[in-house]
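Quick check before the chapter quiz. The format below is the same one you will see on the exam, so make sure you can read both the input and the output lines.
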Amino acid sequence: MARTLSIRSRLVGILLLVIVVFGGATLLISMLIARRAVRTLSHELIARQADGVADQLEGFFAPIRGAIDIGEAWGKEGILDPDQPERLRALLQPVLEKYPQMSAALVADDRGREFMLLRKEGKWITRQTRRDEWGTRAKWTEDGKEEWREIDYDPRTRPWFVGAMERREKEVRIFWAEPYRFFTTGQPGITAAAAFRSGDRDRVLGFDVALEDISKFTMGLGPLDDATVFVVTASQLVVGLPAQMARRPPEARREALLHPVADLGIPVLADALSLPLGQKEAARFESGGEAWWGGRRLYGPALEITVAVPEKKILSGLEDTRFWLGALIVVILVFALWRATSLARRFARPIEGLVAESERLSRGDLEPGPPIGTPITELRRLADAQDRMRESLKKLVQLEGELRVARRIQQDTFPAKLPDLPGYDCAGFSLPAAETGGDSYDAVGLGPDGAVTGGAAARAIFLVADATGHGIGPALSVAQVRAMLRMAVRAGRGIDEIVRHLNEQLHDDLESGRFVTAWFGDLDARTGTLTSFSAGQGPLLRYDARRGAWEERGSDLPPLGIVASLAIEVPPPVEMRPGDLFLVLSDGFYEAAAPGGELFGADRVRALVERRRAEPAERILAGLREAVDAHLAGAPAADDRTALLIKRV
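Here is the expected output.
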């Protein structure tokens, strides 16, 4: 007869065997987990530090790109002329004052003429160079005093001028020069530049950024678990010093910039640069007889961020954890012999309840179930956590619903039907990149008496607006612009008054670095003319059917909200003859990038619209939208897309 065992004995024996096997396996697994934990923690720590540096670099350089955008728009309108120093100073000095990381602004042309505005020790210094007229002489102005100096300087040979001209031929807007020492001050720095055509001259606008400002925040990061963070150029010259350099004299720190990493005398920096560039996972390396984990990441076309962390800092505490884990297993074994049966009963019941609740949650049932009654703290906390998770899921579902409502509300602000203007076919649409977008458009019809009408109209006021970014915040900004426009139109205001009041209100409301580009159009069907005014919105495209050619119109003023007051001059109206088209697009069309990085560009826009110009306006815009979607090849749009087309039929 086979030997029988009591339930208690069987349970205790099985539990003992399970615990022994589990204990040994746990110790083995803990060793494997420790190795993986080191790699995981290293990757997370390095990624967090690298992300932080990249975010701060982005915040550091983003205003410079914005200043280039504004200056380029001025340049295309012929405002930036190196032969007009007073006007240039009046334009550029407020920009430099607003963004202290920029130390100088330069405007040069293909004749070798240059104007430089330099901020040095709280003073403003200008330099004029006319290589074709003055040769090696240059005019310097400081505190109202002029002085002639001999300098062997030709702006056309400077890296920022040469690079910007080459990039323009490749349809790249902004050129970032590899860090170098500035000709005037000798400071190490980077120049951001953009080339443009103004009249019959090629000109370049540049802004200088001192590298010492970059090092201020890289050194200010401080060691996180003794991490080392620094930034170098593609040729591994230092531009962002690590925290260890903060203890050295300012002269030594300044001298270290644009020198090889080895010159800093910190061995781990040079060893970290041997790691693969751009590798997603953290890599292990040896330095000074000690194990380190590190990673290198590209930022932009010319900078690299490197982070290194000593392995001992990551491992600290894991050895103690393994020891206490073994001791805990022994205690559990002794305790299991005594409490096996009661523990099985006390644990099984609430666990089954938790499993049942988890299955309900997995099916989408978010209503509370029966309470889990248990005196065990861990299970009670788990039940509470499950309840909190249920509430969080409810809030998430509610938030998703609110975002859908916000999108629907924003879509409802777009005109369901554009004004009915005799002799004209108008169409428009707006597609946000997220649930809500930073683009908007509107059209207000006016009767012969100037009153707003929803039917046949004699005139129409049009708007296309684009706030920086996309999401709920920019959506509120453009909704504000649309509301103020409609109030101003109902009050009978002209475009100049509308633009002035909008700019003043946005300057008061928007935080620094935020602005709104906008295009305003006043189409008079009785005279067949369109008054067009752009504040940073462009390019604007007009097809002249008589000549069979396109005209490209730039911005009349900087974007709204940047400066408190603007000198507004509305251009004369444009005659719209039969077959003529006027197209306004937000930059989400021009800058839509294929998976390989190629932009859709203005040339594709002009070619498609010209090919389909005989079709109704709505079909032309539908074709444009389909072409951009095909160019994206399934990739999500990075920016909002808004279009408005006016066609004389």
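If your answer matched, good. The two ends are 105 Å apart (CA to CA).
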